[in-house]
Amino acid sequence: MSKYSRHTNRELPNSRRILWRPSLTRDRYSDQVLTSSLTHMLIEDIHIGIVPYTYDDYNSQAQVKLTQPSQPVEDMICNALPTPYGRSNDLRSAVCGFIRYAAHVLATYGELNCEIVYYFDNHNKDKLIGFELSLIPPGVLKRFFWFYYYLSPKDEDSDQNRIISRIKRIDPSTVFILELPKKFGSPSSYRRNMLRLAKLGQNIVPDFAMEEMRVGNDKRIFDFSIYRRSYEEWVARTTKHLGWTARGTFREGTTEFFRLLRHLRFRKLQSKLRVHILNELNAVLQIIGKKIGFKASITMDELSEPTSYDEKMHNLQDGKLPFMDAWKTN
Fold it and tell me: What's the gap between Cα 94 and its chain centre?
């Protein structure tokens, strides 16, 4: 039998510390960002295109493999990675799923937190047989400088519901914190920008204009065309550093060259984010591997590197890259 279990039983003895109760209600930030048309589109565009869906298609020849091949270690990693469609037995599907999942959370909240949970043999509590990157919901993990903690759930039947009694310290070495690259800013500044974008995307027509348009009001001074142009310019400026085209929101006021340049910038950003997620995942696997007893990193082939988009943008500006070829990027 393999040293590591292909499907680690979640009921085995483990090192899990953070216990949380899923909530059926969204926090205020999530409710604003996930229901606004602009931020919803931006989040979706970032995570859907970060790895082409043809990459991990059944007929795809692309390979995702370990630098030091080992089926038991591969099985353990597949079993440990959270993905939007559950656990996978295939390394390529598991890694692609995790990257898409991580990109979605990063694009929404600016950071992804996971607890590194180690599993022990049922008969030998000192023998590690697997691990799991267990998602910590946004807002649960808190930190004060180098002090990491979380608040245990309230117990309605207990008198120990004071904040001080609910603070539980957690070892930083048992937490995997994945943040956006520095280009996006800090997680808190990123969330502030998302809130600004979300507020503008809540309604196509502002509330004050809707009030002015009510029946019987003959004194109408609101000009929707002027407002729409200002709206499009603001979206273009706000997302300039991302290269996002907002799915053609400001198409009428731009040239095809401008849209293509932003398209390539956005594809470069997705490529950098993909590389960043994979590098951070490999870094935490090195830490976990030292504890469990394996040494391996994940590699992905047949995907464009960020530098390849610099060359395409340079050729586009020099008139050497046909427009049709510029749209065909992966």
Answer: 15
Q: What is the 3-state secondary structure (H, E, C) of 77-144?
A: HHHHCCCCCCCCCCHHHHHHHHHHHHHHHHHHHCEEEEEEEEEECCCCCCCEEEEEEEEECCCCEEEE
Please state the separation of Cα 151 from the chain's center in Å: 24
Long-range interactions of 236-245: CB distance < 8 A, separation 24+? 238/193, 238/196, 238/197, 239/42, 239/197, 241/183, 242/42, 242/266, 242/269, 243/267, 243/268, 243/269, 244/42, 244/45
Those residues whose C-beta lies under 8 Å from the C-beta of residue 304, and which sit 6 or more positions away, are 267, 271, 329, 330
Higher pLDDT residue, 169 or 164? 169
Residues 6+ apart with CB under 8 A from 205: 213, 224, 227
Q: Which helix (H) or strand (E) holds 176?
A: strand 175-179
Every domain of the chain and the residues it spans: 28-202+239-327
Helix, strand or coil, per DSSP, at residue 289: helix
Confidence of residue 325 (pLDDT cuts 50, 70, 90): confident
Distances (CA, A) of 22 to 35, 116, 137, 153: 20, 19, 9, 10
Mean pLDDT of the chain: 85
Compute the chain's Rg from CA coordinates: 24
Q: How far is CA 130 from the centre of its chain?
A: 25
Residue carrying structure tokens 């493999």: 65
Mean pLDDT on 241-263 = 88
Contact 264, 309 (CB under 8 A): yes
Find tokens 């270690």 and name the residue: 73
Strand-pair partners of 142: 149
Residue pLDDT, tens place only, 207-228: 777 766 665 666 667 777 888 8
